[in-house]
Amino acid sequence: CLATLIIMLVGDTYTLINYVSFINYLCYGVTIMGLIVLRWKKPKIFRPIKVNLLIPITYLAFWAFLLIFSLYSEPIVCGVGLIIILTGVPVFFLGVYWRNKPKCVNRLIESTTCWGQKLCFVVYPQCGSAEEE
């Protein structure tokens, strides 16, 4: 959110749309690749919807063309899009990967989550953490 606010203050809306569209296309392609990898490595797991592999492979072919063309035609926009995506890596390591956090960090994360929920009216905030229950 902070990166988006900075981009909106500094750049124009057209550039912001280009950043976000590149990020979306990149994420869609990685998701479809994950579908193919799971179909190959874990063919026996339950799937409520199963499609012919020709559909995601065809999608990936078009996706690769669009991504390569975007990288060739607007490398700076794509680079900034990748930097925006990579800003989530430290957040992942601090919030998800790091299991044995000190209690003060857990309290900070919990209070920030609760504050955000109240501010945005998205989820009714819980009293206390789930670990206490």
End-to-end Cα distance? 32 Å
Strand content: under 5%
How many strands?
Answer: 0
Structural class: mainly alpha
The dominant shape is: extended
Average residue-wise pLDDT:
83
Output the helix-strand order. HHHHHH
Query: What is the number of domains?
Result: 1
Continuous helix count: 6
The biggest beta sheet, please? none
Low-confidence stretches: none
Helix amount, in percent?
over 70%
Q: Rounded to an integer, what's the Rg over CA atoms?
A: 20 Å
Structure description:
By secondary structure, the chain is mainly alpha-helical. The chain has one domain (1-98). Helix content is 74%, strand content 0%. It has helices at 2-10, 13-41, 54-73, 75-86, 88-97, 103-120. Helix 2 (13-41) crosses helix 4 and helix 3 packs across helix 4 (75-86). It is extended. The two termini are 32 Å apart.
Provide key terms for this protein.
single chain; 133 residues; mainly alpha; 6 helices; L-amino acid transmembrane transporter activity
Write a compact overview of the structure shown.
InterPro entries: AminoAcid_Transporter (IPR050598). Helix content is 74%, strand content 0%. It has helices spanning 2-10, 13-41, 54-73, 75-86, 88-97, 103-120.
